[in-house]
Structures are given as C-alpha cells and as structure tokens.
Amino acid sequence: MTLPEISFEFFPPRDLEASFRLWDTVQVLAPLAPRFVSVTYGAGGTTRDLTRDAVATLHKHSGLTVAAHLTCVNATRDETLAIAQGFAEAGVRDIVALRGDPPKGETGFTQYPGGFADSCELIAALKDAGPFTIRVGAYPEAHPEAADAQADVDWLKRKIDAGASEALTQFFFDPETFFRFRDRCEKAGIDAPIVPGILPIENWKGVRRFAERCGTSVPAALDEAFAAAERDDRQDLLATAICTELCSDLLDGGVDKLHFYTMNRPELTRDVCHALGVTPKASLENVA
Ligand code: FAD
User: Fold this and answer.
1) What is the pTM (predicted TM-score) of this model?
2) Beta pairing partners, 261
3) Whose CA is nearest to atom 30 of ligand 1?
4) Does domain 5-275 bear CATH number 3.20.20.220?
5) Whose CA is nearest to atom 15 of ligand 1?
6) What is the mean pLDDT of residues 21-48?
7) CA distances from 22 to 64, 120, 269 (A)
C-alpha cells in the first residue's frame, strides 16, 4: 500500500507552557516527515502576532515547511497583505487563505472597513502579491452559511479559480461524506486536490460541541461508544481505533493525502499515523 502524505495543523501558543507543548508536539510529529505543518489564525484575527511569531519560529528551527493561516477578519486589505508580506520575508510561502470566523460573541462575518469582502478577494490578492502556495478550506457537509451543498461547491470552485492550489476540509466522521463531496467537486470541474481534514478525538464532549457548531454530523453510535470507553478509561484506545479506521477507509477509497488537526497534542495523531504505516523509518525510506 502506498503511504499517505500527511500534514499537521497547530495553533499558536499563548504562554510559555503552551510554547513548550507546541515544541514537544513538533518534536514528536516531525520524524513522520509531513508535507507541511500549518499554524492557525485565531477567530477574529485575535492571534495575529502569536501566529506570526509561531510561524517564523517553526520555519527557522523545525526544518519543516510551514503554512500560515490568514483571514480577512478585522483588518484592512493593506494590513492583511502586509502580514502576508511579513510571512514571505520570513521565508514562508505557504498560506491557508480563509474568510475567517468572527471574534467570540459575534455571530456572522462582517466586512471590515477597507478589508476583503470574502475569501476569493483575499486569494486573488495573494496570487497577485507574490509566489505563494495558497490552500483553502472546504466543507464536505457544506458550510453552515452556504445556501445549499451545490452553492458551497460552486464557491469552492471560485476559490480554486481565484488562485488556490489545494483545499483542506473541515473534519467529518463518515468516509462516505467525503467521497460524496469529492464526487460533487469533480462534477463541478474542480481538479485541485481535496485533502480530508482529520480530527483525532482527544475529548469526546468537546469534539461533539465543536461538531455541532461546524455542522458536522455525529454518528449516534459514537456517544454510546465513548460513554462505555469512559467507564473503562479506554478513550484513547477507542479514539485511535476510530480515527485509524476512518483514515484507512479514505485511503482505500483513493485518498493519498491526510491533514490532521492535532490540537497541539501529538500522541493520538502519531499513533494513528503509525497504525497507517507512516513511521519515522518508513518516512526515511520514502526519502531515500
Ligand atoms: P468561504 O469558503 O469563503 O465561505 C464559507 C461559505 O460561505 C462558503 O462555502 C460559501 O458557501 C459561503 N460564501 C461565503 N462568501 C460567499 C459569497 N461571496 N458568495 C457565495 N457564497 C459565499 N478560522 C479562523 O478564524 N482561523 C483559522 O486559522 C482557520 N483555519 C481553518 C482551516 C481549515 C482547513 C478550515 C476548513 C477552516 C478554518 N477556519 C479558520 C474556519 C473558517 O474561517 C470558517 O469556517 C469561516 O466561517 C469560513 O471561512 P472560509 O474561508 O472557508 O470561507
């Protein structure tokens, strides 16, 4: 079996302890030779400086290709492009370009005065600004704000046509959800890679709440399974098994790239990668 190419998402640390946790996470996952690692941009642009610093530090010290998330929220076009320019000057050419979520407490996206109206405008401006590799978000179960599933795919096509070369999806639990989405994308003429976003379940209750906010369907069996696993203190085992099965089904269905939402906790992601055959040894052999 061909091994999947993998990538990892991190969030920027807010304090010293979190910085050590991120660095530990990088140390554990770097030997798996990810294609790239990405660093999120807090909702409402709240982590702008933290993202910039984490991206620059990871780029300088980890030896990995680093992608910076960038959103349209709470900044003018010039300010947003200046941030992208800063990434480029630090040697970072990979950007995950997003419209972004509003700050906590606000419900919908509102265009900032002088800011980008939507993700397509941001993507087009980045394309003009320099030699960036631009990735975008995609939503197998449609974004909660989409008129319908087809409108969502049409919008994704516009993002790719505006200059993006790859899409990373929202997380989901059922491989069929991804396959149906991939079919819709193909039918719409999208030929850029669509990479499944994988969320290893560190904390079922937290993931469940998050899934509700994102519009991700939750199979009923998972509630029962995690309740039983909690009683036996075997949540990690269950989480590893569920995530490995999902990834394995995706690979069987022709997927060759996986993007893991690590939440800056490396163990589950590492264990799933190992179960899929992505180990430090295999990664070295792939390079040789
Ligand atoms: P878009 O795809 O541009 O829009 C979302 C949906 O709204 C579209 O699918 C489309 O259906 C509809 N839509 C929007 N504008 C239009 C329009 N003009 N015309 C028609 N339809 C439209 N958020 C952060 O704040 N920071 C992050 O670092 C971050 N990282 C993420 C990484 C990934 C891989 C993903 C999938 C999401 C991430 N998010 C992040 C969340 C993201 O910002 C939210 O989901 C946000 O609400 C949508 O951003 P987007 O760029 O995907 O939006």
Assistant:
1) 0.97
2) 9
3) 40
4) yes
5) 118
6) 93
7) 14, 31, 14
**39 CB-near residues (< 8 Å, 6+ apart):** 9, 10, 11, 12, 51, 54, 55, 58, 66, 67, 68, 69
Instruction: For 33-154, list the strands marked E by DSSP.
Output: 37-39, 66-71, 94-98, 133-138
Ligand 1 pocket, CB under 6 A: 40-41, 43, 69, 71, 96, 98-101, 118-119, 137, 139, 143, 145-146, 151-152, 155, 168, 170, 197
Instruction: Specify the DSSP class assigned to residue 44.
Output: G
Distance from C-alpha of 168 to C-alpha of 170, rounded to nearest angstrom: 7
pLDDT digits (tens, 9 = 90+) for 156-168: 999 999 999 999 9
CA 235 / ligand 1 centre spacing (Å)? 31
Query: CB neighbours of 247 closer than 8 A, spacing ≥ 6?
Result: 4, 198, 258, 272, 276
Q: What is the pLDDT of residue 130?
A: 86
The Cα–Cα gap between 115 and 127 comes to 17
Q: Indicate the DSSP class of residue 4.
A: P
Residue of 9, 121, 166, 202 with catalytic role: 9
98: CA distance to ligand 1 center in Å?
5
Answer yes or no: 5 catalytic. Answer: no
Q: Find the helix packing angle between 77-89 and 119-129, rounded to 10°.
A: 50
